[in-house]
Amino acid sequence: MAKRETIVHWFRKGLRIHDNPALSVAVDKVRENPAKYCLRPIFVLDPGIRKWLRVGPNRWRFLQQTLANLDENLRSINSRLYVVRGNPVDLFPKLFHDWNVTLLTYEHDIEPYAVQRDRKVETQAKEHRVEVHIEKSHTIFDPDVILKKNAGKTPLTYQKYASLAGECKIPQPLPAPQKLPVKYIAPEPDKEERRNPACYDAPSLKELDVDEASMGDCKFPGGETEALRRMEESLRNRSWVCNFEKPNTSPNSLEPSTTVLSPYLKFGCLSVRLFYGRVSEAIKGQKHSQPPVSLIGQIMWREFYYCAAAATPNFDKMVGNSVCMQVDWDTNKEHLEAWTHGRTGYPFIDAIMRQLRQEGWIHHLARHAVACFLTRGDLWISWEEGQRVFEELLLDADWALNAGNWMWLSASAFFHQFFRVYSPVAFGKKTDPEGKFIRKYVPELARFPAGIIYEPWKANLETQKKLGCIIGKDYPRRIVVHEEISKVNIQRMSAAYKRNKALKEEGLDGDSAATASSPAGKKRTASSSTPPAKGKTAPKRQRLENTIQKFFKKK
């Protein structure tokens, strides 16, 4: 009997069986001829990825739970998950050969690492005569379609993106694949399975080298089943759905005031197309809030950032990023460390950062507060540093959204009202005047009364002793004085805006302006040995160089 052909579905994101077009293609082909084909849904766990990808223990746990749940759900359709260890580029040639693979399916990914990896795997597949089928289902709208509608240009405002998306047809979510027939026979064990029957099982936390003691309580279990349950629970209250407005939710409530579906959307445990459809059903025929603050609006923000990221090289960096303003941020390791670990001396900021480290999630408005504090508000540290911390600690750390939101909140792109600065004191008081949130996450201050818990430095030493917390000893002194430094930083931001505007007026725009106006670009320009371009462009180039040097001398 001839060896059956293997169809491989490669899970990366999209860790679900509902509304998974690429998986459905694979399953349907096997269902058509189970005597000819067998199915191997795989997830590639690359040990080497830990060397460069920042993933904290809470997100490893979320992934481990998600993979275990995905295996359960695949077994419900008479299949299973095969977790293969190694680098995808090294693994696939062997898998193609050993498993007699003729079709590989997967979901498209816009992240730079994924684009390079997938290009290599596609080349390998072609060499092994393996057909590759790719579907786009991690977003509602295909970024390429949006860009084409906008003459190839990146839409840089939410409103522009929404108008372009409004011209597109909304794809309907697919149901989970039908169960493979009873007569279907699972793939024959390969050499690795015969040697170790558990070799393709989902990983344990121990295998992932996760210190369980370093994790907080598991408030948000991973997996498709939990994602669907949480979605239905959120949508059960139709009035809440219709009246939802993100700015009116609380950044410091003890329990989340939003859906907390972002981790499930990030990993693809929940289809964004399904969520969009279910929200649309809930508000149909009802008076409801409108984008961008509504639930539909929140989904569209995700779509907006994905489109911007897909079209912009170096989207997660300042230099070489055509949409990002170039700012002469400071480097201060002590301040960055204090912010990262919740030791700034500002209880509201510290409570948020400690919640992030413990639970892997913080409210979006809380992210606003700590991001503004780190960058343009108080510490004048680059948004790239904050991006890296969020990348490690957030359950929902999503490459496109993380970079996009950090640029927005630092007023480096998309948002330009840099003079609007969040107060690390007043902002939290609006929704939690009693300071319950601070008492939970900054227990050193638990005995401080509401009147001073946001500003403990105002208590005299005798009061501090009575309350069991001496500032500078049991809880840190504030590392900056917000009332003073925020004014200074507004002026610095104003100067940065003027500098960038002048460079663009001199003819530098896009990537050229990004490179030339950055500190790195400044160094290259000042020491450049490249002769001026010949012809009519030489005077203009000289003016550009003079302008660049003039503005950076003012730094």
From TrEMBL:
GO MF annotations, alphabetized: deoxyribodipyrimidine photo-lyase activity; DNA binding; FAD binding
Classification via PROSITE patterns: PHR_CRY_ALPHA_BETA
Record note on cofactor: Binds 1 FAD per subunit.
Record-level GO cellular component terms: cytoplasm; nucleus
Domain of life: Eukaryota
GO aspect biological process, one term: circadian regulation of gene expression
Pfam families assigned: DNA_photolyase (PF00875), FAD_binding_7 (PF03441)
Site entry (Electron transfer via tryptophanyl radical), positions: W329, W383, W406
Domain Photolyase/cryptochrome alpha/beta: from-to ranges: 5-140
Chain intervals for the UniProt region annotation (Disordered): 506-555
InterPro entries given in the database record: Crypto/Photolyase_FAD-like_sf, Crypto/Photolyase_N_sf, Cryptochr/Photolyase_FAD-bd, Cryptochrome/DNA_photolyase_1, DNA_photolyase_N, Rossmann-like_a/b/a_fold
Binding-site list for FAD: 258-262, 298-305, 396-398
Cofactor section: FAD
Entry keyword Flavoprotein: yes
Sorted UniProt keywords: FAD, Flavoprotein, Nucleotide-binding
Family: Belongs to the DNA photolyase class-1 family.
Stated name of the protein: Photolyase/cryptochrome alpha/beta domain-containing protein
Lineage: Eukaryota, Metazoa, Ecdysozoa, Arthropoda, Hexapoda
